[in-house]
Amino acid sequence: MNIEVLFFGQLREITGVSQTNVVIEDNSRLADLVAYLSGQYGEVFREKVESIEGLRILVNGREYYLLGRMEAPLSDGNTVVFLPPIAGG
Amino acid sequence: MTGGYQNKILRVDLTNRKITEESLNEELVHDYIGGRGFGVKLLYDELKPGTDPLGEDNEMIFTAGPLAGTNAQSFSRYKVFFKSPATGGYFKTSSGGNWGAELKFAGLDMIIVKGIADKPVFLWVNDGKYEIRDAEYLWGLDCDDTHTLIREELGDNNVKISCIGPSGERGVKYAGIFSDRRACGRGGGGAVMGGKNLKAIAIRGRGKVELADKEAYAAAVKEQVAGYQANPQFSTFSQNGTWIAEAINALGMYPTKNFREGIVPEWENLESSEYLKLQVRKTRCYSCMVHCGSIAKIASGRYAGSWTEGPEYETIWAFSGPVRHSDIGLTIAADKLCDDLGLDTISTGSSIGFAYELYEKGIITKADTDGLELTYGNSEPVLEMIRKIAYREGIGDVLAEGTREAGRRIGKGAEDCGIQVKGLELPAYDPRGAKAHGLNLLTTNIGADHNSGYAPQEVFGVPIPWEVDRFAPEGKGKLTKWNQDSTAFLETGILCSFMPSMGMLAEDVYGRLLLGATGIKDFEDPAYLWKIGEKIVNLERMFNVREGFSRKDDTFPKRLKEESVPEGPSAGSVFEEDQMLDEYYTERGWDIKTGIPTKEKLEELDLGFAIK
Questions:
Q1: Distance from CA of A7 to the nearest CA of B (A)
Q2: Both B347 and B417 in a single domain?
Q3: A59: nearest CA partner in chain B
Q4: Hey, are the CB atoms on B251 and A6 less than 8 Å from each other?
Q5: Is B345 in contact with B373 (CB distance < 8 Å)?
Q6: Which among B71, B230, B444, B592 is most buried, taking Cβ atoms within 10 Å?
Q7: Same domain assignment for residues B573 and B492
Q8: B514 lies in a domain?
Q9: ipTM attached to this prediction
Q10: What domains can you pick out in chain A, each with its CATH number?
Q11: Where do runs of H (alpha helix) occur along B310-344?
Q12: CB–CB of A83 and B250 under 8 A?
């Protein structure tokens, strides 16, 4: 299935891109996507995902912690966003 | 009186040119703590219902909190309270910078201004000496020049100034009060000052703020600093400030085309990384280690040479989403122009976006805009539109009334195009993508103000006090009450509202700061603080009830209730207004039909005097 991924902050620095489209196996979960991206961009990607305190991951605009965290199911056409902690406004 | 407070209120009657000093009332201090507590209690007590916001009986209360001027972090802001010409109700507005601390150094907790001067004046507060000075030569000047000339006249570059620009002089309903490029922006405080012929208040103070228990206070400040440093958002916020346009677009709730779309095209142009490239230096408020502010300057393109302090997120949005165009240079140039002319950027941008929609629908034409083509994607007319509003020229005259009144006057369907609550335009978040955030905009007593009960749980994904689904209407009444009441008690000390939105200050630390400064034991008790927060919100509501407000005024334009966000991560969502209001009023102990606090609730909060 096709997943659009957006990167911000440190994760963009690691990947060197702001956006990518990836094809992963059907019925994948968020953890599978992170594994795939770590294969693409190196283990440092996974390390950052696990270590950035307050990292926000959105699956189609919803917080991943409401969808089962890393077990969040993904569907074809989903957009996944990796956002560093932000504030203000 | 114990430490923290200066135990002095300055009262200024401009009509009679009379200035008097008065002591703080100890009961007021105990029962309302300061800041927003003082503001609402004094306005409630001293303004008669029906007071003309631009008349001589309206009061302006300028105040700094009990921790202002000390080394506690992010507490040296000031607030101004008045009856708003935009909403017709109670209003509070707030600014950072240095003016609040200077008020304390000058030995004052508050300045209360009423009356109307017979000609333009400014108030000069100089370490216990007070003077009403001529300002005829300043009338018509922009805010920047006003600062410069007052400092020249007084021969002191360290004088701190709050002033109005040409828009305030002309009664623009969203003219603000400006202090060194920081603004008490919202609600038309600048128009109220202008109506009083008061161009500025200049302050110089050389005193200090005494503390009840220096050691305990130092320990509490140390605790506060450690909390800041340990917060995961601290370093990013310190670097980027409020440059968060990418996040709100990623959530699909960046109001675009007058709240008809949720993502602005080419929003990548407005990312924090793009503003960082334009950052000249950092700026900060008095005694705040966050230093979230920036000077940004653009070197190329149509707006080459423009610079500003900021722009803050709200301003970035105000000059992109409403006109559906992402031009970073425009956001900088428009911010500076609004600062110079004395305008609130949120309502200015929203009013321009309103005009764009009317133009699209043919309700207004080129004949109304002096030839300006207000077509989405064309942001070229924006600076001229700002100028027209500030000087009330052409179409700017009716837009200066705010979108609610402008809609009424223009008619032909324009009534439905003003995106406001109680006459205050919505800020940079689509309520359909963040329901508690929206419920706060809907119910806050000053109109659609994001800073009275920001929902970081939804906007930033901060799971404090609990995790929430931003689209779910259920449970948002309780959460909104939590956000509003906590904001209210933290605003007794006029804490910068960015800090609670990041969970950077726990209530018990605030309690220890208050206790160390003032020595008042009750202030250390979180339960007491929560009660004061709730009491403030309820008394604000009762001020408005006295003016005829009720549930009918807690309402969004029908667009937000009946039309869903068309695309993006918030697509399909509408705002379930009635359902959420019922839950909110129930949580608050207010009558569901009227949205008015019950007798029992008022008695519980020691507000029996407000029962009608």
A1: 10
A2: yes
A3: B569
A4: no
A5: no
A6: B444
A7: yes
A8: no
A9: 0.94
A10: 2-83 (3.10.20.30)
A11: 313-318, 328-341
A12: yes
User: Residues B20, B169: one domain?
Assistant: yes
Domain that holds residue B241: 232-425
Look at the pTM and tell me if it is higher than 0.95: yes
Q: Which of B425, B451, B481 is the last residue of a domain?
A: B425
Looking at residue B20, what DSSP letter applies?
A: E
Per-residue CA distances from A20 to A3, A68, B265 (Å): 8, 23, 18
Q: How many domains does chain B have?
A: 3
Q: CA-CA distances (angstroms) from residue B510 to B159, B224, B366, B516?
A: 30, 8, 55, 10
Per-residue burial over B348-371, b if 16 or more Cβ lie within 10 Å, else e, is bbbbbbbbbbbbbeebbeeebbee
CATH number assigned to the domain comprising residue B87: 3.60.9.10
The pLDDT > 70 percentage for chain A reads 99
Neighbours of B522 (CB within 10 A): 17
Average pLDDT over residues B25-53: 98
| B26 and B175 together in one domain | yes
- Is residue B57 within 8 A of residue B47, CB to CB? The reply is yes
Please say whether the dihedral angle defined by the alpha carbons of residues B574, B503, B606 and B448, taken in this order, is positive or negative: negative
- CATH code: domain of residue B494: 1.10.599.10
The alpha-carbon gap from B251 to the nearest alpha carbon of chain A, in Å, equals: 5
Residues B437 and B408 in one domain: no
Q: Contact B469/A66, CB-based, under 8 Å? A: yes
Q: Report CA B544 to chain centroid distance, whole Å.
A: 18
Q: Do B187 and B181 touch, CB atoms closer than 8 A?
A: no
State how far the Cα of B95 lies from the Cα of B98, in Å rounded to an integer.
Answer: 9
The 10s digit of each residue's pLDDT in B561-599 is: 999 999 999 999 999 999 999 999 999 999 999 999 999
B348 domain-assigned: yes
Q: What are phi and psi of A34, to 5 degrees?
A: -60, -40
Query: Does the beta carbon of A16 lie under 8 angstroms from any beta carbon of chain B?
Result: no
Asked whether residue B560 is domain-assigned, the answer is yes
What H or E segment, with its residue span, contains residue B21? strand B18-22
| Strand, coil or helix: B168 | helix
